[in-house]
């Protein structure tokens, strides 16, 4: 707690304006934050009715975000104890990638791959910092501009245990099952390789313009589907090489999945190729 509080902001510094969205413990509001020599637009996670469980969660999220410093990861500006506890972050004006995809069915493939590459870059950074995100999906990728994406929502994120090399969750909670690797669902074990599985689903969402994975299948049906060796189908008009990356992310055995570091050059190559031909 001490640690987080060194990023303390005074309530007068944070001016709240409209509502951006709602989360588990409260609302996310838009606003500005007055810093020493500048005023910056911000997104502020607020807590409703000073719920102590929510406070603990916000402090946990802040402690983790504070360790992170990367261009494709939403930066935390600080924590503010006003009427209730607030987590102040830089604003990503254009909002969630999922919504953007739904509205831009004309998006070029190079633009879609540009998003993938930036997400991969941010995820490689998390991988190198021993952080598992645990909620990677297009709803949690935010756009600063049409060509600049940032990974957000560290509410589920954890440090991996340096001994066991994974994070062991105590039990299933409100989990985004459709993005989770089998070992997460069966053994509650999370590491960067389980984020890689989610990244594959995120790529699928990007190529499917924000569609819902696995249609309306129920959780058990999805598990059986995966266990029998089935995978999400290749999105319409999706390049085989992109689909092959997705399939590699969905290897049952996590050791067979690529790392983010390994995927970056492949995505970079595809990006350049599609860009040159304006695909
Ligand atoms: P969930 O229950 O979905 O995990 P949460 O409590 O973790 O929600 P977020 O998903 O982080 O909250 O935020 C909710 C919404 O607020 C997002 O969908 C997004 O629209 C908006 N939002 C969050 N952070 C930002 C930001 N930095 N810039 C712009 N919008 C943001």
TrEMBL record:
Residues 14-272 form the Protein kinase domain. Keywords: ATP-binding, Kinase, Nucleotide-binding, SH2 domain, Transferase, Tyrosine-protein kinase. ATP binds at residue 45. Coiled coil: none annotated. Transmembrane segments: none annotated. GO terms for molecular function: ATP binding; non-membrane spanning protein tyrosine kinase activity. The keyword Transmembrane does not apply. Belongs to the protein kinase superfamily. Tyr protein kinase family. This is Tyrosine-protein kinase. The chain holds residues 402 to 680 of 680 of the full protein.
């Amino acid at each position: 707690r001490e640690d987080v509080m060194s990023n303390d902001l005074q309530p007068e510094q944070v001016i709240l304006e409209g509502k951006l969205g709602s989360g588990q413990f409260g609302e996310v509001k838009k606003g500005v934050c007055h810093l020493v020599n500048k005023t910056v637009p911000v997104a502020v996670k607020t807590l409703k009715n000073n719920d102590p469980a929510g406070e603990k969660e916000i402090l946990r999220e802040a402690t983790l975000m504070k360790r992170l410093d990367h261009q494709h990861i939403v930066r935390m500006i600080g924590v503010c104890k006003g009427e209730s506890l607030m987590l102040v972050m830089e604003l990503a004006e254009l909002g969630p990638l999922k919504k953007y995809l739904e509205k831009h069915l004309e998006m070029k493939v190079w633009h879609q791959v540009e998003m993938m590459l930036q997400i991969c870059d941010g995820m490689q950074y998390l991988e190198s910092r021993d952080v598992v995100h645990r909620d990677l999906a297009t709803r949690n990728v935010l756009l600063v501009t049409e060509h600049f994406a940032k990974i957000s929502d560290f509410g589920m994120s954890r440090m991996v245990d340096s001994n066991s090399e994974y994070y062991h969750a105590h039990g299933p909670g409100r989990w985004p099952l459709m993005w989770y690797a089998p070992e997460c669902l069966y053994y509650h074990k999370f590491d960067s390789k389980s984020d890689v599985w989610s990244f594959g689903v995120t790529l699928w969402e990007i190529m499917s313009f924000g569609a819902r994975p696995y249609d309306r299948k129920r959780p058990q049906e999805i598990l059986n589907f995966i266990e029998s060796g089935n995978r999400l189908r290749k999105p319409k008009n999706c390049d085989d090489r992109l689909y092959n990356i997705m399939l590699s992310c969905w290897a049952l055995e996590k050791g067979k999945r690529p790392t983010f570091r390994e995927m970056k050059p492949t995505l970079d190559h595809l990006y350049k190729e599609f860009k040159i031909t304006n695909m």
